[in-house]
Design goal:
By secondary structure, this protein is α+β, with helices and mostly antiparallel strands. It binds hexanedioic acid (0L1) and magnesium ion. The site of magnesium ion has 8 residues, from strand 1, strand 5, strand 6 and strand 10.
Length: 257
């Protein structure tokens, strides 16, 4: 039996991102399942690497119960981060590069020594050198942000850009830190790091396990985005966005007017 056209689907998704133009969902018509969707994601990211981008990390998606329930799934998903996606803390993004960007407050880990493939994560303190508040800018390449699970995996889990605030040593507890997302100085979302799989540290176990299934090994020096602590908010022209995470500080970005 002939399987889905992995390269062709990656090309469509890559073109949608390059032209900042939404496309329709692809999984149902192409018979894409979760494994094939990760193969598309690999091809999609490879396209970026061939243009000179570098892999700099991994991100977790659908880490809140609310997002999982919305998608009818019980497993988180993961995507890849490249250097071109990183926006300096306090930096400005050009909205012309995106289709319908949304921002969500996250917690980032700076990875240190990681287990060998197939080995479970030993000590979190050995694996993570530092933590920081972060903002993820997600931008589904599908019209109306509507997709199935294989669709969103193939689309690199809507990854588009991210900001990491100042790194701090890992605090004692990460499981119930207050999180705010502010837009233009007003609180837009309130949450807790507990929304990230009950404890963002769990996201790292999941990232290692799930990426390992597809032969992807996390690397020392990579950034790991553990997941969103609140719902995502549409990013409007001129908006100033700040994520505040208790004990960790802030990360911010501005959308060009
Ligand atoms: O980072 C995320 O949780 C997003 C995962 C993909 C689903 C979405 O685009 O909302
Ligand atoms: Mg996210």
């Amino acid at each position: 039996m002939i399987g889905p056209d992995i390269a062709g689907i990656a090309e469509k998704l890559g073109g949608a991102a390059d032209n900042a133009t939404a496309i329709g969902q692809l999984a149902a018509e192409t018979g894409l399942d979760v494994d094939a969707a990760y193969a598309v994601q690999t091809a999609l990211v490879q396209r970026r690497l061939e243009r000179g981008e570098r892999l700099v990390g991994l991100k977790m998606g659908l880490t809140s119960k609310a997002k999982m329930a919305q998608m009818g799934v019980d497993e988180v998903i993961w995507g890849r981060l490249t250097d071109l996606m990183r926006v300096p803390d306090g930096g400005t993004v050009d909205l012309g590069a995106f289709i319908h960007p949304r921002v969500e407050p996250e917690v980032a880990f700076l990875l240190d020594r990681l287990p060998e493939p197939g080995e479970p994560l030993g000590s979190f303190a050995d694996a993570v050198r530092a933590v920081a508040p972060a903002i993820e800018l997600i931008d589904s390449r599908y019209a109306n942000f509507a997709f199935s699970l294989p669709d969103v995996i193939a689309d690199n889990t809507s990854a588009a850009a991210f900001v990491v605030g100042a790194w701090s040593p890992v605090p004692d507890g990460l499981d119930n830190l207050g999180v705010l997302l502010e837009i233009d100085g007003r609180v837009a979302q309130v949450g807790s790091t507990a929304a990230i799989l009950g404890d963002p540290r769990r996201a790292l176990d999941e990232g290692i396990r799930l990426a390992g299934r597809h032969g992807v090994r996390l690397r020392e020096g990579w950034v790991f985005l553990a997941g969103a602590a609140t719902a995502a908010v549409p990013l409007r022209p001129g908006a100033h966005v700040r994520a505040v995470v208790e004990k960790l500080g802030t990360a911010s970005l501005r959308a060009a007017a």
